[in-house]
Amino acid sequence: MADPELEAIRQRRMQELMARQGVGNQQNPEQQKAQEDAKREADERRQMMLSQILSSEARERLARIALVKPEKARGVEDVLLRAAQTGQIVEKVSEERLISLLEQINTQTTKQTKVTIQRRRSVLDDDD
What is the pTM (predicted TM-score) of this model? Predict the structure, then answer.
């Protein structure tokens, strides 16, 4: 008797969770398309702004960095865009200036890696 009731409760709970998260068929294809279009437009605006403040060599270097470490390139782009919006960048950023910016960011975000080696003596090893 409890099994159908339990199953009904589970179904209602699953529908509530899906409705909250907007997962599944809850979103219209129109809403998904609108979200994708907005994201695409934001990316295009971002790239246009970057092309205005970066020299061609600096853009190429940033593109190469993005291939290897996309999150790092995104962070550098954010720093550059913020600096341009606040008026700190008055001329195009050269490759040398981009390199110095990357070095500054690397020194600020350097992570120390510590490796610990633990050796265990095996029962079969004899030192005699």
Answer: 0.59
